[in-house]
Amino acid sequence: MTTTKAKVVYSPAFTDGAEFQIPTFRLLKQDGKLYKSAKTPDLDKEKALRIYKAMVTTRILDERMLAAQRQGRLSFYMQCTGEEAAVVGSAAALDDGDMIMAQYREQGALAYRGFTIDEFMNQLFGNELDYGKGRQMPVHYGSKVLNYMTISSPLATQIPQATGYAYGQKLAGQGECTITYFGEGAASEGDFHAALNMAAVHRVPVIFLCRNNGYAISTPAAEQFAADGVAPRAYGYKMDVIRVDGNDVLAMYEATRAARRLAVEHNRPVLIEAMSYRLAAHSSSDDPSGYRSKDEEAAWREKDPILRMRLWLESKQWWTEEDEKQFQENMRREVLETMKRAQKRSPPPLETLITDVYDEAPPMLAEQFEKLKAHIRRYPDEYPKSARQVKGGV
User: Fold this and answer.
1) Residue 291 annotated as catalytic
2) Angle formed by the axes of helices 84-92 and 249-266, to 10°?
3) Is 282 marked active-site?
4) pLDDT attached to residue 392
5) CA-CA distances (angstroms) from residue 60 to 45, 81, 117?
6) Which of 291, 301, 333, 377 is catalytic?
7) Which residues pair with 271 in a beta bridge?
8) Is 64 a catalytic residue?
9) How far is Cα 179 from Cα 101, in angstroms, rounded to an integer?
10) Of 85, 170, 316, 385, whose CB count within 10 A is highest?
11) What is the Cα–Cα distance from 235 to 381, expressed in whole angstroms?
């Protein structure tokens, strides 16, 4: 039985959904000028520059840390390159109390909220100041203070978690929402459909933001689904949906602001499909030359979201070439110097292996930890000195 009154027909009538044409919302041309009918979002100079600096910071951090991975300093890295507008533009439209549940390419959202280069580096190197105490892979950030849920590796698990968290926000009634980011590949997971259905049925304040960057690792979007992208799936759940040019930071900001109003004021979940392109490899373990052409990449580099916003800022006389040069120099220096400091810090103490799960370690864990210390004591040369940095020694 359906939840709406359906028209009755008396001969077989099939439909494949082709009648639904979802437009792409766009405000800013690549030359930094607005389209003729477009209106500038309510965005002052201070906030616009904060957005732009977060985008540039993310790009510089990505370039430097990929180089560090290639030098053997890091085991792994994932870049946001080419998708900075989709991530930072949407994050800027949220309130600080809103929860962010990311996939693994949203470091720009953290940069916008104030996560320092030092905090980034501590996580990447898993040192004693890492909030995750070295337990996570690089780029699996998290910040309780900044309402950024710690990233987990399994694909798409954050999507139903976002629905659940938003349900709690609805019950709390404090006017907050949750945004969850994921790629179009993750939208092929069952978690995606379960999450959207739960959100629609229970009417929770959640924004599902799909970064459609063209590839799920090496699988192109054309081989992932036959329909018109991810956006039409919202109709199956009677959910509000919008498709946005993901390289247009102003459009991303305005669309997310409108989505947040629907979510918070009316408890209507929203799906945003941000059309972008992953300029970098899927990760430091990937070689995109095996599945896409240099010409394709070059065509998308012409649509660089950072350059588009920079030209808009210059047209507003809010940014100059000298500002750009100075900011880039300062940020590159800070990233390099901070990385060197983070590398020299000690790893987390061995005793942190059994903390944070229980208030006090249960006998079974305590016994296992004593056996571990005995093992290290027996084979000290097989372990780094940091493994023996435990209270009372090993």
Assistant:
1) yes
2) 40
3) yes
4) 54
5) 22, 9, 11
6) 291
7) 208, 241
8) no
9) 6
10) 85
11) 61
Alpha helices in the chain (DSSP H): 45-70, 84-92, 107-113, 117-125, 158-172, 190-202, 249-266, 294-301, 305-315, 321-344, 363-378
Listed as ranges, residues in the chain with pLDDT below 70 are 1-4, 386-394
**Could you give the CA distance from residue 176 to residue 265 in angstroms, rounded to a whole number?**
9
What is the DSSP secondary structure assignment for residue 32, as one 8-state letter?
S
- Amino acid in position 363: P
Q: 233 near 263, Cβ under 8 Å? A: no
From CA 274, how far away is CA 245, in angstroms rounded? 6
Cβ-Cβ contacts under 8 Å for 51 (sequence gap 6 or more): 43, 88, 89, 92, 112, 249, 253, 309
3-state DSSP: the chain helix, strand, coil percent, rounded to 5? 45, 10, 45
At CB < 8 A and 24+ separation, what contacts does 331-340 make? 331/56, 331/57, 331/60, 332/60, 332/64, 334/117, 335/60, 335/61, 335/64, 335/117, 336/64, 338/117, 338/118, 338/120, 338/121, 339/64, 339/65, 339/68, 339/73, 339/121
Catalytic pick from 59, 243, 282, 308? 282
CB-based contact 93:256 (threshold 8 Å): yes
Cβ atoms 309, 319 nearer than 8 A? no
Per-residue pLDDT reduced to its tens digit, 269-316: 999 999 999 999 999 999 999 999 999 999 999 999 999 999 999 999
pLDDT at 388: 59
CB–CB of 102/181 below 8 Å? yes
CB atoms within 10 A of CB 358: 9
- Given this model, what pLDDT does residue 394 score? 61
DSSP 105-130: S-HHHHHHHT--HHHHHHHHHT-TT-
Does this model's pTM top 0.85? My answer is yes
pLDDT in tens, 38-48: 999 999 999 99
The pLDDT of residue 7 is 85
Helix intervals (H) in 226-286: 249-266
Q: Write out the two tokens for 102.
A: 């990311």
Adjacency order of strands within the sheet including 148-149: 24-25, 240-245, 270-275, 206-212, 178-183, 99-101, 148-149
